[in-house]
Amino acid sequence: MPPRRRQNGDQTATSVSRLQRPPDMPRPDGDDKAALARFLTQRFLDTWQHPFWVNFRKQATEDHAFHTGGPGQWDTGQRQKLISKEKAALSITAIRPVIRMIEGYEAATPLEAKPIPVGQEDAAHTEVFERVFKHASKQAQTEFESSAIFKDGIIGGMGVGYVGVDYTDDFIHGTPSMQRVPWDEFVYDPGARRYDLLDARELFWAKMVAVDDLKAQFPTKAEEIDAALSRVSAAGPLAGLSGLDLPARDRQDGYKAPPGVALSMYDPQHREVLVVEGWYRVWKWESVLLDKRLNRVTPLPPEVVSVGQALAQADPLVTIVKKPRREFEMCVFLPATQQYLSGGQPFENDTAAHPFGVFVV
Q1: SS3 at position 318
Q2: Closest CA relative to residue 360, chosen from 149, 177, 102, 49
Q3: DSSP strand E in 223-351: where?
Q4: What SS3 class is residue 319?
Q5: 186 pairs with which residues across the strands?
Q6: Could you tell me the pTM of the whole model?
Q7: CA dihedral (60, 62, 64, 67) positive or negative
Q8: CB 355 within 8 A of CB 164
Q9: DSSP letters of 139-181?
Q10: Rounded CA gap, 75 and 225, in Å?
Q11: What is the pLDDT of residues 118-142, one digit of tens each?
Q12: Measured between alpha carbons, how far is 356 from 201 in angstroms, rounded to an integer?
């Protein structure tokens, strides 16, 4: 995560420690999807309101406003004071040309994914795979998305990309895709230490979505969504959710609060609701067969573990070992109603990782 520096001479705007994790709670076991949605809603709210992320959003908002120029470079009170005295509140954006130069250099020399042969037998296929990678990157327009992610990073300290498979056009095989995740829509477990965030308990992508689009994407839950949001709209701001100092924006003015700071869960005026795609880490035990004679490790499906155990008893050079395997699963839910929409593991060929790539400056 980007270390935050002191700005404008403010000696108090220092980094917030990540050692303080959100309150821990047991994840519900079994297939209770409603309980999972409630659990992830609370984890999302605790993570969103964690001092580390509150501090980051505040300072990143200032960074982006400083790059954009205009009124965003001024303290609101100071600017209004100058205007009231009929003095010009000028803004000179000296940093923007520098950012454009760095952004242009990155776009002119983009990084390319290249296959690395493991042995001599792979050398003949390296060129073929390299062409496949270039074609997939061109089809997914990764150069444009990666440039936007890079720009977010050099301005605000963090850029986020989502690498996955898009089944919109090809619903059988899918198409590789990369898209930029806005920096103010993404949070993860502040206790994570690894750069790839594989040690994070949860990662959340939260964005406002039109209710009509949401019902079109989940037609079997359309009536349930309408009924739940009707109850929320009638009740006003949410109650009973701990860890929130600002549970929702004003119901009559959904965009009253500053962007990137406040958290709006439902805007009845514009018919938009906050949808969160959460990725959470799980541990699953698996059995592997160690064959010392052949120097080989073979994963054993549950149905053949008994066969492997019998083989291990008969052969001293064969051993059965149980070990934990890390996996990530996904859940789409509505914090406003703590409602489960979909979940599981959409990328069956890579269950050990999440789809987010974070660029930190």
Answers
A1: strand
A2: 149
A3: 266-267, 272-291, 296-300, 318-334, 339-344
A4: strand
A5: 205
A6: 0.78
A7: negative
A8: yes
A9: HHTHHHHHHHHHHHHHHHSEEEEEEEEE-SS-TTT-EEEEEEE
A10: 41
A11: 777 777 788 888 888 888 788 777 8
A12: 14
